[in-house]
Amino acid sequence: MSNSSKKGIWKVISASSMGTMIEWYDFYIFGSLAVVLSTKFFPSDNPTAAFLSTLATFAAGFVVRPFGALFFGRLGDLIGRKYTFMVTLLLMGGATFVIGCIPSYETIGFLAPVLVLILRLLQGLALGGEYGGAATYVAEHAPKGERGYWTAWIQTTATVGLFVSLAVILLTKSLLSKEDFDAWGWRVPFWVSILMVYVSVLIRKNMHESPEFAKAKAEGKTATNPLKESFGNKYNLKFVLLALFGATMGQGVVWYTGQFYAMNFLKTVQMIDASQVEMLLGIALVLGTPFFIVFGWLSDKIGRKNIMMAGMLFAIVLYRPIYKKMYETTDLTLKTEVAEKTKVVASAKVISETKMDSVYTTTREFTDGTVSEEVKTVHLENGKVVLDDKGKEKIETAVSKKINNADTIMLVFLIFVQVIFVTMVYGPIAAFLVEMFPVKIRYTSMSLPYHVGNGIFGGLLPAISTYFVTNAKEAGNPEFYLEGLWYPIIIAAVSFVIGMIYIDRKINTLHE
């Protein structure tokens, strides 16, 4: 490739990647703040239900992504890649900014979660149109035989977007007091989005249409009805279904397990301090992200299928051992407590003339440097403990752990291993999908299986897995924390079997 060609493709990569990264940032800022948002937009009398409701709202954005893929994919195949994903960027940025402006549940009641849900649906529609456009746009600029390498840069944007969301949250927390962040500071990451969107729009407006689409349009070879030609044609529909069930379905659950499920597991099951969790995940992502490029490049040499299937197989076999080790690393029952350093502080919070909370804060230190804080809140009314719906005393217990350096290193390593699985399945998949479909229906055809695989199968993972874990815990299962993994393991296993049997290496050159 000549220097001018390299310069040109780097411009394409930069413009496409920045916009796509911002869209992922917008989408994932909600997930990164799920624990905080559950207390702002949902009733506070049942924290578990509020958290599950937040995860369900988060998942709703994923569920509508296929509809965004159909709508914007059709638009992209009719009028072009450039203008379509400019619209998706503006829609995503606007919805994110407005989420940061919505009053809390205490202020406007049930209107708060309703508005948040509507905006999450708009975000999902926008993201449904963004990824296919960016991946297609870059692939159609890439030299022959190098699509895996160049499209892998787009693959980094989802992880970079998650990393940036964590970095912005950590920075905001460090600049504000805990009280200020809880009161209004959590809104700042949503507001920051609008500035990044503005910069990206300035960059994207100077981009040219992709050469392959421009050529097809000039020759009158664009689709007149992309939806019908993509899904009404039995031959093409076969490839759409193969892409979904043999690749993106498994890739989707591996992606979300390695990043979002890991984050929720550290926060809600291991009870590690939220700032430490964001640091752990941030370090693992920085170490793992370059491997998207490595596996994208390698897929140009040895084929996409082998790398993606290996990533799924590793995940299927190793998830349960990895998460068992993660849990045991910070399990307080396996550590030695320094009894003389245990402190208990009692306080009272008056709510009304008849209601008050008795709060008992117990701080424990362990020989390995771990520190835990347990806050037990007893709800009282007229001097008696309030009973819940099941007739049990309404006592809430929250535990937070500050982990030591050795445990930090171990957890970073275990998350990093999961990120490697992610890079194996996700690094080559953009090129894989682009090469399955002809130019005139490429945007539509590749977007749908990608967003069904990621939006439906992957996006529902946090809510479904949390539900499994909660049920297993209530049933008294000692390894309740592993039950949520059955969902990604089964989905990835089905995808692995279908992919190994039906995906042919010739797909890599189907539309070269």
How would you characterize the overall build of this protein?
This protein has 512 residues and is α+β, with helices and mostly antiparallel strands. It has 2 domains: 3-330 and 405-509, MFS general substrate transporter like domains (Growth Hormone, Chain: A, Up-down Bundle), CATH 1.20.1250.20; 339-402. The chain is built from 21 helices and 5 strands. The protein has helices at 3-32, 34-40, 47-63, 65-79, 81-99, 105-108, 111-139, 147-175, 178-183, 188-204, 211-218, 226-232, 234-269, 274-288, 290-302, 304-329, 405-426, 429-434, 442-458, 461-474, 486-502, and strands at 343-350, 355-365, 371-381, 384-385, 395-402. Strands 1, 2, 3, 4 and 5 form a 5-stranded antiparallel β-sheet that branches. β3 (371-381) and β4 form a beta hairpin. α1 packs antiparallel against α10, α4 (65-79) packs antiparallel against α5 (81-99) and α14 crosses α17 (405-426). The longest helix is centred in the middle third of the chain and has 36 residues, at 234-269. The radius of gyration is 24 Å and the shape is globular. The relative contact order is 0.15.
> Can you identify the CATH superfamily of the largest domain?
MFS general substrate transporter like domains
- Indicate the percent of residues in helices: 55-70%
Compute the CA-based radius of gyration. Answer: 24 Å
Tell me, rounded to a whole number, the average pLDDT.
Answer: 84
CATH class of the largest domain, named: Mainly Alpha
Strand residue percentage: 5-15%
CATH topology (fold) name of the largest domain: Growth Hormone, Chain: A
Kindly state the number of beta strands. 5
CATH architecture group name of the largest domain: Up-down Bundle
Question: Would you identify the regions where 5 or more consecutive residues have pLDDT less than 50?
Answer: none
- What count of domains describes the coordinates? 2
Order of SSEs: HHHHHHHHHHHHHHHHEEEEEHHHHH
Our count of helices gives 21
What quaternary form is this?
Answer: single chain
| Form type | globular
Largest sheet: 5 strands, antiparallel
The N- to C-terminal Cα distance equals 17 Å
The helix-and-strand class reads alpha+beta
